[in-house]
């Protein structure tokens, strides 16, 4: 019995092979035609129709202006389809890789399909086509708030539009199929992978829209050089309109070359549908295959191919400066390349599935990935919300299943952050139960759909809350978004906090799925403090976090929040509408913090003058001196560094926690900095040229006076990148020097105390930090400048008053926004005894948080210099910033 069966099988295979050889070149497989070019677009229903190319969003610019909010509504895209007559007997589909967030597709006026959710792909079958050049597709996209679609709220901008590729799929009547979840219908995975053996499993669905036929499914595994390793086949009969699920025999691989971050080796499967009768290949899907095995250990961390491998990297949002989420694929791929260059091996694709190109790049570069659906902050307790979440989860898994880089599927981020029904205990409990139920259902669905990966939920710092809500026990891994030293506490609390969480939850591997501090690269501080947004604070914060993460084996992985700055409409702060926690800027310029990770993670010798990108600096000289000592930080993974100032060695210093800090003697003008290190016998160096403006402490007659730009109520430096001006912190007046007389520093009230100065968006400027701090109730400002003619500009902004917006993401305590009454202040200003401002009623005349400038000229003829005197009529006078220029 056994032998006759196997003889039969061999005979069949023999027949099949000869048939395949005969017809190996007869191909009629799928065509994917990119449709990105030349669409018409109309925002809403009344605006003018524009010609655009995809990717496209209608929110690229309206998120950047001073008006709150951005367009959330309908946009309609139209395009003529150029269809070849020979495609009449094919199956045609449109494939949308992503459209935010509800999409309806019409062809020749007839609705052919729709899709819910902005971050996964979907396929729409075409029908009713004329093939005469008049076929027109019309796509209605809507990014309005919808209580049944995740995300409901989040700290990122929900850009609307057809923002990923759209293509036309021309398929034979029999083809691989997954209409429902937008995948290609072919699923490939490695199983029983070890150093010596592996099996490759290919399964999927096919559909036959033609007459009944016999179909052969084959899959060939090739190595990275294209050499065939093995082939498997399967014969089936498909009736008309039948869908068949297939599972090919396992492909054996002996001594597989394993995929890993250091060696991301990719095999490939080419899976074909062959018409048995004609021998024609009717469909073909190529899939890269990475063979690897992994596990998470609660105490020892993550293991890849039996070797310990700490997951460390960053999260990524998909937007880019000036483009919103409509970013060309090659620019997106650069993000993964930058992460790799940084030494990262882990990408948290947050908070939603992203372009396929991202995971393709992860596969190619050896970055392990976690992907999640966008349930953020809260849920809606509705059948529709649950159903939509489940479809998103299935789409995410099925569309991204074949990427070897993916090791984790996730589904909720800080779901208890926006607690609903907080004032009704019973109702709140019901809400919590519903969250738990949704989590469990998504967990079960995920494990059933893909038992080869781990599951994850990311929580905010309320550890007890998540335990109590039953959410910690559900996923296989638990992620914590921790911001000690940012939203609350001190950075030093981070490590002990990790130990506490580990003790509290001893049975679940822990990831730090978020940590970060805002860094506005225009801001510097030599006494950095939380919320000042300085690069220097960011460096201190990340140094502590890196150390604490690396030394704890039970932290299986960590992802910096965020790889790059990203748009978040509701944020105000120093760069309104942008979350500045990126290691890179919105246009992907590295900040020093990026180099810090590079030095900490990369094994190749690395050396960088950290402040090299801070090309324009300034500082106040000591009395009677013409130089300024300022910190220069060299970021490196070598043991020691030698630093040169304008060609002269300053000596050699040890590198501690990836940095060596130098008191650099800056002279006025051009300064050359060179850092040199020897690592593994190889000399590496970095050079920087920094233009330094020495501001005299005491002015002398005849001395050239440069422009002086002063921030009041602030200890930071601010660089106006457009004007190339450096703003220095104020000081109190000393004889013969310059500074303020009297006054106190503005301190925000209530929840806004979480900011440095005010966190209000100052309208009428992009240099918000110039206006966000101020001195209140000052008596005078005096500058003992040399004789000459000057232009004096006073910068004001009322910082107290309604319109106050508080940080939307204070994770420690979400105190409701308190409406503030605008401060009433009326004051006069005298410039060298001459009244220049009379009865300035700041809030009444200019409102709250508007940039106000008052410019005056004065001539200094004696050694008294410039003196501004402030006289209160009502309330207390303020001054936010001051600018003095000598004029001819
Ligand atoms: C978080 C959120 C993330 C925010 C981040 C922040 O915990 O998960 O979406 O962007 O904090 O910067 O506040």
Present the secondary structure layout:
Layout: H1 2-22, E1 31-34, E2 39-43, E3 50-52, E4 74-80, E5 91-96, E6 102-107, E7 110-116, E8 122-125, E9 136-142, E10 166-171, E11 174-176, E12 186-191, E13 197-208, E14 213-222, E15 228-238, E16 242-247, E17 251-254, E18 267-275, E19 281-289, E20 294-297, E21 301-304, E22 307-308, E23 311-316, H2 329-341, E24 346-349, H3 356-365, E25 368-372, H4 383-400, E26 406-413, H5 425-449, E27 454-459, H6 463-468, E28 477-481, H7 494-504, E29 510-514, E30 523-525, H8 535-550, E31 555-560, E32 566-567, E33 578-579, H9 592-601, E34 607-609, E35 616-620, E36 627-636, E37 640-645, E38 648-654, E39 659-667, E40 669-679, E41 682-695, E42 708-711, E43 716-720, E44 725-729, E45 738-745, H10 768-771, E46 775-783, E47 788-796, E48 826-831, E49 834-841, H11 842-846, E50 852-860, E51 866-874, E52 878-879, E53 881-887
Parallel strand pairs: 23-24, 23-31, 24-25, 25-26, 26-27, 27-28, 28-29, 29-31, 35-41, 42-44
Antiparallel strand pairs: 1-10, 2-3, 2-4, 4-9, 5-8, 5-10, 6-7, 6-9, 11-13, 12-13, 13-16, 13-17, 14-15, 14-18, 18-19, 20-21, 21-22, 30-43, 32-33, 34-36, 36-39, 37-38, 37-40, 40-41, 42-53, 43-44, 45-46, 46-51, 46-52, 47-50, 47-53, 48-49, 48-51
Residues 154-155, 413-414, 460, 481, 514, 561, 579, 581, 809, 811 line the site of (2S,3S,4S,5R)-3,4,5-trihydroxy-6-oxo-oxane-2-carboxylic acid.
